[in-house]
Specification:
Elements (H helix, E strand, L loop, with lengths): L8 H9 L7 H10 L4 H17 L5 H14 L14 H17 L4 H11 L7 E2 L8 H13 L3 E3 L5 E4 L6
Antiparallel strand pairs: 1-3, 2-3
Helix pairs in contact: 1-2, 2-4, 3-5, 4-5, 5-6, 6-7
């Protein structure tokens, strides 16, 4: 009765980035390999690419790959041994670093958005009431939550006034 449709990473990427045809297949494959096929890292990268395309329509998968390589180089000296012994930690950390720096660059609400995300990291990840952050005012809160959701750092909760945060953000 309920049939699920399985799509490939390439199909998912093309759908998310509104890519028609096969011209970008090699870049999609390169991005997938760089991100080790991790759905969370891919979701972060695609959200980033989409938002950058709102500013610069020419922003491409290749631009993100170059940014990813640059951030990976910067993180070479970071000691990951204190974190979970997981080969994917560096990949997720790099995609988050790229995203968090871009959020921080938003002069209007970046600081508030990161403060909200920081607080959410210490809460139960599901059903976080947005009213906890009302001190920002409705307009600023709405903008900060929208920014975090746009970059896939948080997701809407099951209720309109709730948000969820990925458990890995809490580590």
């Amino acid at each position: 009765k309920y049939a699920s449709k399985i799509i490939t990473i390439s199909q998912f990427t093309k759908k998310e980035l509104n890519i028609m045809g096969n011209a970008q297949d090699e870049k999609i494959k390169e991005l997938t390999v760089k991100l080790q096929g991790l759905p969370l890292a891919l979701q972060q990268a695609l959200a980033y690419i989409n938002l950058q395309r709102n500013i610069n329509a020419e922003f491409s998968i290749q631009n993100y790959i170059e940014l990813y390589k640059e951030k990976t180089e910067q993180l070479l000296n970071f000691d990951f041994s204190n974190y979970i012994n997981d080969p994917y930690t560096k990949t997720v950390f790099t995609t988050w670093q790229i995203t968090l720096e871009k959020i921080q660059d938003d002069k209007n609400i970046g600081k508030n958005a990161l403060e909200i995300l920081n607080i959410m990291a210490y809460l139960c990840p599901d059903k976080i009431s947005n009213s906890l952050f009302l001190r920002l005012g409705n307009s600023e809160l709405s903008s900060a939550l929208y920014l975090l959701r746009s970059y896939s750092m948080i997701s809407p909760g099951s209720q309109r006034d709730e948000s969820t945060v990925h458990r890995l953000v809490q580590q």
